[in-house]
Structure formats: structure tokens, C-alpha cells
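FAQ: What does the model actually see?

It sees only this:
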Amino acid sequence: MKNIRNFCIIAHIDHGKSTLADRMLELTRTVDVRQMENQVLDDMDLEKERGITIKSHAIQMQYSPKSKVEGQKPEIFTLNLIDTPGHVDFSYEVSRSIAACEGAVLVVDATQGVQAQTISNLYMAIEHDLEIIPVLNKCDMENAMPERVEDEIVDLLGCKREEILRCSAKTGEGVEAILDAIVERIPAPQGDPDAPLQCLVFDSVFNSFRGIIAYFKVVNGTMHSGDRVRFVNTGKEYNADEIGILKLDMSPRNEISAGNVGYIISGIKTSTEVKVGDTITHVARPCDKAIDGFEEAKPMVFAGVYPIEAEDYEDLRASLEKLQLNDASLTFQPESSMALGFGFRCGFLGLLHMEIVQERLDREFDMDVITTVPNVSYNVYTKDGGMKEVHNPAGMPDLTEIDRIEEPYIRASVITTSPYIGSIMTLCLGKRGELVKQEYISGVRMELLFDMPLGEIVIDFYDKLKSISKGYASFDWHMNGFRPSNLVKLDILLNGEQVDALSTLTHRDNAVDFGRRMCEKLKELLPRQQFDIAIQAAIGAKIIARETVKQVRKDVLAKCYGGDVSRKRKLLEKQKRGKKRMKQIGNVEVPQKAFLAVLKLD
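And it is asked to produce this:
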């Protein structure tokens, strides 16, 4: 066990985590030259296309540092690396990776310096008492500022300047020094190979041929191939048909002992039987208590996901269950809508997470879905003293029963340079934000802290922030409780019929403007029918905005060439009666673009 090191790589988006992992795999010859490619650990096409990491990936390497004593044979160390995502929407993946490690390599871009997600991931690692190895990446670039960024890291970590390692993940320069530091500085895992078996499940994937594969870290004890094991939380028992370690592919082993990371295949078919954070133990000699897992992921953004064809409902349920295995932060429950039929109300960690889930449903399960307008969850207090958590505007109690509504607030941290401070403050204050404090980190770089309603940043805040700061602002946030708010439910009516999938909860001050923009946008998107379509925005019984999509008329007078005017009038009257009857029974088709248009109103 003294030769095992478990570590993860944490950083802000685009600071070079996956590239550094590539160089480590090359240097330790874990991956063949033929198999080597950029982002070798990112196995989803989606990750390679977007250049981001969505899932954390575990892989084992063998490394022997050059021996300090002449003639002495170098020791071989087993390094278990977990590469993690950098985007704030996937911070739950990072928290699970951190729970399976003893150390973390903190990567900071020498051209950009410390950013919001760097700080947030670092605090998460410090909470778990991980040994931190600070690394300065991209030192070979012309616009690198190593001295200045080193000052920022020293301020942030309180470490000595000489402890910070410089490297270039692209060229491979300095990567060997990082591997040596991992061996020297990160402690070996603590645990007793002879104690009763205790394994922490930190991830799982679905394989259509072999069932569910669970990834675990052995905290105490030793697992052998063929052992009878129990998953403590679910109480289910299985045979360990195959166990092994994670190389680029799965590599079977006869036993895995304390301190190591591996996988287990036991023919599990039902997705609900494996939970991330569960403990695996032996049936014959169980452990006393389960390991304290990590807390459940708390979804922040809710949206309805509906199949385009009603008969695909059960297929969509099966697809979401399989996806949930691979992405434990996704939650869902059945719901129905008048406009869209049966579907699911899904909880996501953010808007990028929602976009990725939709894309994965399409690519991996061939499911075409309609996604409704995302919203956050609100606490609604009724006059009889009860409290209801509302994730969906359709679930709002009647206005007369509501005492007050509380909405979730976040503490947002924006790190930027001096020229953009004014426009960023304008943006945040326009989103009902309150400035808590501002302080200089170094030179011209400044951190702004705001308290803001979560509902205001859900849709387009991040995109706007990036555009007004030309990409020089980084953003991170965490929950900061609930506060009372003057919210109203805005309904959209088409020919007097309410479309529940387009209902939103919004602040009363923004409601009229938002309703007007919604009506204008829908007027552009709804196809014209044989009758007029009235688009109205309403708060309760009060109509606050209206637009009309004009009817398409057939030219019934085309066959009249001259002749008496009464003949023309007779034809027009007949058409008018037909239109009136059609309007009574006419259904308005709402295209998928209309549901997503609300996100892009600006």
C-alpha cells in the first residue's frame, strides 16, 4: 500500500487538465503510441467536439522515479489518476472524484491566473484534507505571466514559492517533476487489507452486454474475484463475476486490496440497485458501518422533457435511467402537460448540464425530445401555514391561497480585470443582484461578490457575462438560502387556451416587459393558419400583452371576372362563416423552436 498514490487533477475550464493527463499517460507508457490522441481519457464524442470534460475518468499508471542512490533499483509506484471536469455545472463530478483521493494537482493557467472555479474546486479539496500540489501550466506561451500568477497562488494557498511547479502540458516539459512530486508529497492511502471489506462506489456506467459496472475505491479489506458481496444501502447481494483495475480499457485482476481503485461487474440489470456513494462489503464478513458517502446532488434547474411521439414515453424512461447511472446528478420524476402529454420533470445542475443531457439522449439513445422552459424551485407558503416546494409553474397553488413565495439566492463570485468592472456591475444589478464586496486579488484583477436570485442567472447570464467581458471574467457560485420575493405566474394563451408548457414564474417588475417580448417572439415563430391566432400574456385574469398571427386566406374571388358585386359579397360571407367555425375547432401547433425561443429572447 505504501506505493499507491490516488490523486485527481482540478482546475478552471480550459486550464489544461486533460492535456496534462495525456502527457502523464505518455510518460508512464500507460497508453500505446498508436492509441494516443488528444483528450485520450474523454471517451464521448461530445467531449472531444466541444473540447470539454463532462465525466471524470479514472485510470491507473505505473511509474518509477529515477533512483536517488546510484546502483539502487528504482521503486515502482501505482498512480490512480482521476481527470475531472472544470465547468461549474459538473462540480458534482469533481466532489465525487475528490472523495476517492488523498491528493490533488491544482492546475493554473500561466496566461490567465487564478479564476473563480480554481478557488471553488480548491476549497472543496481542502475540506476533504487533500494534499495540494500547485502547478503552473502553459509556461511556454509568449503571454505567460509566471511570476505574477505564482504570487496569486502563494496568496491563495499560503504555500512556499518553490513548492509551485512549472510545466507545459502541450510540450511535456516539467511533467516528470509533477509525477515525482505526486510520489513524494501525496500520502499513501490509509487502510487495513485484512479488515472487513469496505469499498466506496464513486461512479457507475451501463454496458448493454454486461449490465451495470460500478467503479469503487477499496478503503479497507481485500476483494477477490468470485466473492459474494453486498451493497449496503440497497441491501442487494451479488457475486463479483469480474473485478479489475481501470487502464485505458478494463483490465481484470484476481484481487484488489485496500487503497486501490477498481471496477466490479456482477450482472446487475436494474439501474436503481447501484447508488453512487454506496458501500460494498462481504456477505460472510460484513463491515460495521457504511462509509460516509458524499451528499446527494441538489438540482438547481428544472425543465420538462417530453417525447415527440407519445408511444416513446417508456423508452424515454429507460433512457433516462441508464443516463442517470452515468450521471448521478440528473434527477427526474413523471409529469404531464395539457400541451405536450406525458413526460418527465428533470432536475439539472445548470443550463450546460441540461444541454448535454439533451444531446446525449439524442446521440446515445436516439431519443428526440422537447424540452420546456427551464426554471428553479421555489418555496410557496400558503395562508394555512403549509409550505410547498414548486418546481413547475403549473404546480403553483391558487393566488388567493398564497401567503408569500421565497426564491433561492446564490452568492456569486466574478473575477475580472479593471476595464470590465462597470459593465459587469450593471449586468448583475440589472439581474436584481446586490453587491456584497469587491477586492483586488492582484494588480488589475478584482473579485466581485454578489447576492443574486438563482432564477435570474439560469437562462442567459453566463453568455452575457462572457460577451461583455470579452472572455476575461470567470464566474462561480454557491447556494445562499431563500428570500421572500414578489413573484407572479405569467401564462401564455393561444386563442384563449392556456399553454402550460410556456408558463413561467417571474418577478412582478419584469413581468410586463417579459410578456410583451414573449408574444412578439411567438408571433414570429407560430406558423399561420386558416384563422387568426390571438397570442396573449396574462397574470391571473389580467391580460398584459397581445399579438395576432394573421390568417392565411384563400382568394375565393379569383373565379369572378367582372359581374355583380353581390356575387362577390356572397362568396366572402360564405368564407367568413367557414372561418368562424374553423376558429371554434382549430388547434394551434406549437413548434419546438417556440419552447426554446424563450431562452433567447434578447
